[in-house]
Design goal:
homohexamer, about 325 residues, alpha+beta, 5-stranded mixed β-barrel, 7 strands, about 40% helix
Amino acid sequence: MNNKIFVKELKEHLNKEFISNFLVSQKELREGAKDFYIRLKLNDSTGSIPGNVWNNAKVISEKFEVGDVIQVKGVVISYKAQLQVTVNKVTKIPEEEYNLSDYLETTGKDINKLSEKLFNYVDGIKNSYLKQLLSKIFDDKEFFTIFAQAPAAKTWHHNYIGGLLEHTVAVASICEFSTHLYKVDKDLLITGALLHDIGKVLEYNIKPTIEFTAEGRLVGHIPLGDHIVSTKAAEIDNFPPDLLFKLRHLVLSHHGEYEKASARLPQTLEAIVLHHADNFDAQTVGVAQLVESVQSDDAKWTEYDKLNNRYYYIK
Amino acid sequence: MNNKIFVKELKEHLNKEFISNFLVSQKELREGAKDFYIRLKLNDSTGSIPGNVWNNAKVISEKFEVGDVIQVKGVVISYKAQLQVTVNKVTKIPEEEYNLSDYLETTGKDINKLSEKLFNYVDGIKNSYLKQLLSKIFDDKEFFTIFAQAPAAKTWHHNYIGGLLEHTVAVASICEFSTHLYKVDKDLLITGALLHDIGKVLEYNIKPTIEFTAEGRLVGHIPLGDHIVSTKAAEIDNFPPDLLFKLRHLVLSHHGEYEKASARLPQTLEAIVLHHADNFDAQTVGVAQLVESVQSDDAKWTEYDKLNNRYYYIK
Amino acid sequence: MNNKIFVKELKEHLNKEFISNFLVSQKELREGAKDFYIRLKLNDSTGSIPGNVWNNAKVISEKFEVGDVIQVKGVVISYKAQLQVTVNKVTKIPEEEYNLSDYLETTGKDINKLSEKLFNYVDGIKNSYLKQLLSKIFDDKEFFTIFAQAPAAKTWHHNYIGGLLEHTVAVASICEFSTHLYKVDKDLLITGALLHDIGKVLEYNIKPTIEFTAEGRLVGHIPLGDHIVSTKAAEIDNFPPDLLFKLRHLVLSHHGEYEKASARLPQTLEAIVLHHADNFDAQTVGVAQLVESVQSDDAKWTEYDKLNNRYYYIK
Amino acid sequence: MNNKIFVKELKEHLNKEFISNFLVSQKELREGAKDFYIRLKLNDSTGSIPGNVWNNAKVISEKFEVGDVIQVKGVVISYKAQLQVTVNKVTKIPEEEYNLSDYLETTGKDINKLSEKLFNYVDGIKNSYLKQLLSKIFDDKEFFTIFAQAPAAKTWHHNYIGGLLEHTVAVASICEFSTHLYKVDKDLLITGALLHDIGKVLEYNIKPTIEFTAEGRLVGHIPLGDHIVSTKAAEIDNFPPDLLFKLRHLVLSHHGEYEKASARLPQTLEAIVLHHADNFDAQTVGVAQLVESVQSDDAKWTEYDKLNNRYYYIK
Amino acid sequence: MNNKIFVKELKEHLNKEFISNFLVSQKELREGAKDFYIRLKLNDSTGSIPGNVWNNAKVISEKFEVGDVIQVKGVVISYKAQLQVTVNKVTKIPEEEYNLSDYLETTGKDINKLSEKLFNYVDGIKNSYLKQLLSKIFDDKEFFTIFAQAPAAKTWHHNYIGGLLEHTVAVASICEFSTHLYKVDKDLLITGALLHDIGKVLEYNIKPTIEFTAEGRLVGHIPLGDHIVSTKAAEIDNFPPDLLFKLRHLVLSHHGEYEKASARLPQTLEAIVLHHADNFDAQTVGVAQLVESVQSDDAKWTEYDKLNNRYYYIK
Amino acid sequence: MNNKIFVKELKEHLNKEFISNFLVSQKELREGAKDFYIRLKLNDSTGSIPGNVWNNAKVISEKFEVGDVIQVKGVVISYKAQLQVTVNKVTKIPEEEYNLSDYLETTGKDINKLSEKLFNYVDGIKNSYLKQLLSKIFDDKEFFTIFAQAPAAKTWHHNYIGGLLEHTVAVASICEFSTHLYKVDKDLLITGALLHDIGKVLEYNIKPTIEFTAEGRLVGHIPLGDHIVSTKAAEIDNFPPDLLFKLRHLVLSHHGEYEKASARLPQTLEAIVLHHADNFDAQTVGVAQLVESVQSDDAKWTEYDKLNNRYYYIK
């Protein structure tokens, strides 16, 4: 994949022909007024871009499916201030010639360093029950591989490979900082920070694109995480019941308000801190992603943020 | 306890002296402008009534505590259209001479008949996994004894011994009726109805009065119930994962809206039906209890229902 | 109309040419990039489907109007997972050759049986004033013909011919079932159930498609129904005023909350029950219709329900 | 009743003994720590004031009931910055010696002048149907007598005898002014203004204090008014149906939002104007009454307005 | 510009070719299935209309930009019940040959008369501090020129040249009328009415179309207005601090509710009146504009008002 | 004031007589059933406690007023699990013998150290305009003295002397920490943090207790702060307008939502961060204060938090 032109680099090729490989994450054969055409979404590790096949669409459409990696020969154009690709030629790449993960959008941070930070927080825990619990969960190599790849969302903040790890470490760091300001139970708080979104490991499929699992929609990451924590704690001798309730409370209440789908309202000082730390990171990164997604150099404002009813000023 | 005058009967003794036994569920020594007095709440199986000790309060206050059963000699008076007892004499009853359960407010329905109905619903289930699950839970005698005594609430609807069983059977009956109207998975729906509030067994203490447990406040009956269902299902060989998700979904979504502390929104037809059946019974019984609590024969309206911002007309 | 291929059967003709008659419920001549085309909505008693006329659109557009029945020669195609018809030839059918009602979407239930059930409920009423009132309203043959055809909504639940009758009978049956659970005034409750949506008879036009009348939008079915009930009761000698207020209250409060356009909040036990019974049936049937509308056999989820912000799982 | 000291004048008698007659609008015998006392509310045409009988309460309590007019000998004191009366002696006045209406709180404006203004608006209507309708309603002497006495509320704005007339004329005047600013159907708008709260005639009892009728709570003034308008219009030959829908719409939508218990949302320009005119007068007079109720000369702020969550600055 | 055909007159030219000049307020080169086309928005003082260039789009697109005035040769067509222009020929008009202001949508009222009314209100102020303040602001010719051109909104009510002046005078007139009904400080109220939206002068750019300034979005017209008032008052000797707080309060609270972006809640009688007067005019004119924008003579209802969730009946 | 027994120490004197000095922050002469008594609130730097004078109340009441410091001889009792003082003797302390500030509740942190931290943040600013602005504001000794004493609230979080400084430094520290996580303009963000609540200096009076000023209620701390920032920036040559808008935006939007009385919604990344940092500290300290206020050693839960509808678990 040397010479690959990444999605993030395409703006440098505006109005020029190029060749590169992408994952097909959406594909739709549409009937236009005069002929059929194909509407595509093309992804790689740096992001995604829409594409259109205008000519010979019915025939080309037979050649590949959503989830395939294809070689595209095309031209980058700008339409309504957004880039898109006019696709002139498509060649399907055989599965054995690529690694799908190379084509999934991925955190810009170093996953190894983030993992190291997470284990440093685990090492810092003094309460032996909480430490055992964290070890049980994160020392399971198979589980941790999945955890380290998981996204923290389908849309909005941290919606990419490694997003869950990145978010978890950020929330833990804010919680740790807060222990210098407020009298909280540090071990409980940091454990809660590390486990608060653990259920997201089961909430999403990531290939070929991030989608909710049936489990994710029907049960949701909060009860899924609560269940992981409860089940693992049950395997530890004499895990103090009161400590477990307080830890489950952190997982269950971290969304802060019922309206935000929290299963509980925060009712301990640690739960208040965790909720605010989680929200702080989630909202800030959500806006930061929106600000960074602006392609035009002239723009003074981002696209409209429908979720929060506003534009953001980007100077 | 023959000759006992029950709380519900006290209005027949208005302005007369009487003697009877009650459980003390609240007790507070207050400083009045001139002297101390005691403010009490007196309970038995038929309800509760406020009481006051005006004379010799400091001395009398030493004689008993909240949770004790006392013999009261006093007079029933009417104050602000509510009955209360002016307590003239108090004698503490030794613990070995009474059964605390006789003094807890209890459902007016027959607990044995309700239990029988519940087991009829269990017998009617055809899906073997769901049937095994229900048996695992309800055939545990020790558990069922607790379940059959549990209240369904601290305030509002079914807030008395046996309230959970009464509510569970009513919801199951509405769900069964609905299978004549709508195309639903009957086994799944009835199982969900029987288990939807199972976590309430852990949410409340009932002696001497109904109070939230720490677990009840920090975890809540919905995640507590979800955990019981998940853990018990995990003990059954080959319990179909998809069936488990759908069942957990019923438990997690039965409050219907996030604002009402639902952990999920109903996203299956069975979940829609269960939510409405639960709400139907809870709201109707809540209002029915309020209507029945009106003591005055002249009243055309109930007391103000602060939760729902209205009075109810009682003709 | 023997040999007619119904809308519900069209998926069996995917990608094949067919001939059948439909009612035109929408028609729009649009200017495409290169030429005009016609966008249609085609209806019959089993539902509706979109259609397009790509060729010779301006000429063909002159031949028929919204409300006409036309013979269509075309091909069923699948576009964005929805079926639609590419219309190749159109022939207008003369009005005298068809019955418009055969082309309106209609309840799948038997209207005669539903009517019978309704009159059984009327027969069961013991209170003579309420019985007279119901007779005055439902024994009027002309009125009942309109009532039995009326829809219960323009969109969402029961939005088809006979929908109002179907919904009315379902609500009455739930209310009747509830009389086994709660101490309510059965005659009042059943009368309220039968009359709660009576104003919908004036709220909609049904031909060629269900639309609000000016009266429906400016006055609304709740005040329209309240007026019918008041006016008819005024014709009955000595109708007890208090009974009338309680019955009007049922009609006025059945939406349950001001936010849902209820004219009153439910303030009697019967009003609580009626509101919940109405909501139970409306919401369940709304979701059931959405679940049944899914055309693809592979789909695990319905389309997004914008009104309630969720997808539904259909296994 | 010459020499009567009115409620509004009592602050001039602070800490002095006085004698005057008042209507008893509330009366409650309460048990204090040492003895019984009576809590009263005393009214006359200028307002109301709380009172207490500390001595010999049980005996005095037998002498009069709510709704009686009594002669009070007492002292005005200030308690928590509010005036109240310590009642030392009570004499019941025989019914034949007073006119109850003299003791009900009454508008400060001249009811005859307000009536004259109202009939001027009626005279100005050119549309013959609307004029007939208004005449049918307001030319009924018996009805108009009740209308001219009715309050516009139990609490908040215009909650006194004549309040409905005062409010109706104010809303009509604002609507008339608005016809200089906006292109509206003046006859329709003024008719709507004069009739918008007509149902309040049936919503309240006024003696001995303003209370909701059963009809008022169960049906409400909006449907009650809609019914009066519909019924009276039905008696006029050829009243145009569309005109009636638009007029009923004004009555039904004047609260503006469903959350404010409006039966419809304003959907004509006249309905928008009427809603805003109604709200303008109601809110302004509500605050003006609160500002005027401040008794202390030092106060810079009113009491807390719980309905609107704020204090008002009065300098 | 004699012979100019105005936007409002185009419906008289339906399906005919015409020639006229317009300002280009939007322009987008789009890629259709077969070829590029240009989507335009064309404005003049009477309104705006969409337009399309179907032929030779890439070449024509080079000839003019947004903000230019162009001569258009084209045909008026009706599409989805809305008028639009099929543009066949475009000629750019040199800047020196037109006055941009002639092409901006402008109030239908006479700006000179509105200005005269405004100064009459200023002349009527008796309080010398308030009068000085108003003079300082409105007697600044340069400022007043901008003020008299400013719109009162980007969308919804008064969103055209002169809209701010028109709205300001209307609000002042309603406030003045209200002084006949309520006991308010007239000078303070009228001054507040004249200054309440003064910050809008800085909130919008008007050329070539009304857009928010960065200042408008980041600071907003309420704090911008508060700052103008504070700064100007600071230049007047001995301006009473309390009077200034009350005046700033009028500016800061005129939106009435926090949810409507009000910086304060109205906490004086004058603030209550000003808020209602402002809302009255804004909402009524908003609906009136929507009603007047209906082009079809057959329509009985306006387009859907998404902001307020309703249609309006137009008879 | 050696030997003073502080409010926080009174629980060690339960049921014992003691002598100490306090500030009277509330005082009310009430009429009981048998005699008058005085209800007091007694304050010092460590908090406040209720008190009652039961004997000789009318005479004692003449001796002192709210705002005086008095020597109290009394007994600490426990009533409804809250401590209060039964006052037996009162001696007024002459004003010249005490410093009122010693009796106002004060931050538990060191004001000098907090000030030092604040000036360290100022020193760290590199942007010369922002640095000049901060110096202009905080280097004014007189202003800083007031700022360092100001509370951050009347109730809820940081409602004590020095609370504003403590909160400001905490918010700045969270903002600084966040610059390690997110790409923000550090100088702008830290300046915004230091100035976000600057208007609170004018919002409260602190003697004898924290109360809103008229300015505080009518204008509010957000517009007051915006005005300080704007006015001071105007005195700096060439302060870049865009920088000023962005800084004002931080002040105006820091409450985050209109419902929370924010004048703007956060529309820059720095505004998002500041809002979350502010909310994080305010909410956490609010709950921490509530947790610390629990006097009983047995309590497992705090008092009910009405603002947030919950209890907090305190282990």
